[in-house]
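C-alpha cells please, single chain.
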Amino acid sequence: MLSRLRFRRLLRWALILLALALIALYLALPLVYGFYATRSARAAVGAPPSGFGAVSLTTDDGVPLAAWYAPPQNGAAIVLVHGSGDSRDDVRAHAEMLARSGFGVLALDLRGHGESGGDANRLGWQGSSDVGAAVRYLQSRGEVRAIGGLGLSVGGEILLGAASEYPALRALVSEGATYRSLDEFKALPEHRGFINSLQIRMLSLAVMLFGGGRPPTPILDSIMAAHDMRLLLIAAGNESQEIAYNEAFAEAVATRAEVWVVPGAGHTQGLSRSPEEYERRVIGFLKETLLDAHGD
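Here you go.
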C-alpha cells in the first residue's frame, strides 16, 4: 500500500514538472522573446570607414534611418544590411571589402537599431520599408547604374523578403538566413506539423501582441516572384538548419541561385572564417551579375 501511494505521488510530481516544462517551452519562452524582439536596439555608432560619409534616409512610413554611403567606382552600389540587434558598425568589414573592389556601399541601421529612429522589431518584419528607402536613395544618385544587396542573418532575410517589391535590386548575397515568421518556418517539410511549429506560432503571436506589427511577405514567395534576380546564398558549415533553409531557397528558384556552405563556420562567420574565399565568391558574384550587364 505504501509503495503504491509513493508511486502515485511521484507520478503526480512528474506530471506537474512535465506540465511546467511545456508551459515554459511553448508559452513563457515565446512571450519573453517576443517582448525582447520589440525592444530598442539603439546604440552609438563609430566614425564611418575611410571613403564613407554619414547620410540620412526616410522610409515610406516616415521613419528616419541613419546610414553610411560610399559612391561606386564601377557604377554599382550595394545595400548592406546588418543582423538582429546590430548596427552598421557590425558590418564595417563587409563595407570595406565591397568598397575596396570599387562597389558603392549604402550601409544602413535598421529601424530601432543603431542610430535610426522608429520602433525595433528584431525579427525584421518592417525591414522591407527600410530596404525601400535605401533603394530610392541609390536610384537618386547619378553615379549609380546598378543596385545589389548583401545582408547578414536577419539582414539577409529582410533583403530576400523584399526582393519582389524592389526590382531595381538585381542581385542579392544573403548569409545566414533562415526564417522570421511561421510561414517562413514551414519552408522545411519537417516543420509543418502543429507541435513542431507551436513555439514559433506562439512567438509570432507574442511579437504582434507587443506591437511588432504583422509578419512580412514570406521569403519563398518573394524570391519566386523576383523573376530576374540572382542570389548567392551563404550558409554556415556548422549550422545544419541554415544549410537546409538555404538549399530550400535555392531549389525554389532553380538556376537563379547558388549556395555556398562555408566549411567549419558558425553563424555569419563566413568573412572571418574564410576571408579570401569569401571575398572571391561575393565580389565575383556581384561583378558577374551587376557589372557584366552594363559592360563594365
